[in-house]
Write a structure and sequence with these properties.
The structure is a single chain. The chain has 92 residues and is mainly beta. It contains no helices and 5 strands. The strands form 2 sheets. It has a 3-stranded antiparallel beta sheet, with no helix packed on it. The protein has a two-stranded antiparallel sheet with strand order 1-2.
Length: 92
């Protein structure tokens, strides 16, 4: 994936997990869980400025976007940290 640059709409969001945030713990180890969402060259949406938000039932959602196409939200599977269901690129 290309390195994101200002004004370029190729970007992505990846996931890294860790069993603890205590760097002194023997369980402290970041694990690359891979790509969550990415945008293709020419697509009218950037996938950056991301944040996890929770609704009133505790369901996680990923907010992302800006510059082209505004802010979007995707429902996240709490067990995997990835989008809960595939959505065709045409409706993102």
């Amino acid at each position: 994936m290309p390195i994101p640059c200002f004004g370029v709409n190729t970007s992505g969001i990846a996931l890294a997990t860790n069993g603890t945030l205590d760097p002194q713990s023997p369980k402290y180890h970041w694990q690359d869980e891979g790509l969550v969402l990415n945008s293709a060259h020419g697509e009218r949406l950037q996938r950056h400025r991301s944040n996890i938000v929770f609704d009133e039932k505790g369901q996680p959602w990923l907010s992302f976007g800006s510059f082209w196409g505004g802010i979007k939200m995707r429902r996240i599977d709490a067990a995997t940290g990835k989008p809960s269901q595939p959505i065709p690129p045409s409706i993102l």
